[in-house]
Write a structure and sequence with these properties.
8 strands, 2,3-Dihydroxybiphenyl 1,2-Dioxygenase, domain 1, single chain, alpha+beta, eight-stranded mixed beta sheet
Length: 139
C-alpha cells in the first residue's frame, strides 16, 4: 500500500530575508529551521517555515553558477520549485517507480543535515513537475 503524504513545498526565492519576512508576518508562519548546503548540486540556503501545519522550504542559491536553484530562477523565475512527498520507505518507493517506468534523477540522492533522505523524480515522467520523494529513517 502506498502511504504517501505531502511533506513540504519547495519555493525558489531571490531574497531569502524578504521571503522569510513575508511568510512570518503576512502568512503567520514560524521559522523552524535554517541551514546552508554547499554540497555539489545543491548550493543553497534553505529556510523551513511552518504555516498552520504545512511546511514550506524557501530555497535561495548560494552559487549563481552551479546551484540548481540559480538555474531554475534564470529559466522560470521565482516560485514553486518542487513538491515533496513523504514515503514510508524510500527504497520500496523507488522500486515501485521503477516498476511503473518512472525514472529518477540518481545524482540528486542525498541525506540532508537532519537525516532526511531524498531524491528527485525525472520531471519528464511527472508532467513537468519536479517531485521529491523523502523519508526519515532515523525517526
Amino acid at each position: 500500500m502506498k502511504d504517501y503524504k505531502l511533506d513540504h513545498i519547495g519555493i525558489a526565492v531571490r531574497n531569502l530575508e524578504e521571503s522569510i519576512h513575508f511568510y512570518e508576518n503576512i502568512l503567520g508562519g514560524k521559522l523552524i529551521d535554517r541551514y546552508r548546503s554547499n554540497s555539489k548540486g545543491v548550493e543553497s540556503e534553505i529556510a523551513t517555515i511552518e504555516v498552520n501545519g504545512t511546511r514550506i522550504e524557501l530555497l535561495s542559491p548560494t552559487n549563481n553558477t552551479t546551484s540548481p536553484i540559480a538555474r531554475f530562477l534564470k529559466q522560470k523565475g521565482k516560485g514553486v520549485h518542487h513538491i515533496a512527498y513523504y514515503v514510508h520507505d524510500l527504497e520500496e518507493a523507488l522500486e515501485n517507480l521503477k516498476h511503473e517506468g518512472i525514472r529518477i534523477l540518481e545524482e540528486t540522492f542525498r541525506t540532508n543535515p537532519h537525516g532526511r533522505r531524498l531524491i528527485y523524480l525525472n520531471p519528464v515522467d511527472t508532467e513537468g513537475t519536479i517531485i521529491e520523494y523523502c523519508d526519515y529513517p532515523d525517526q
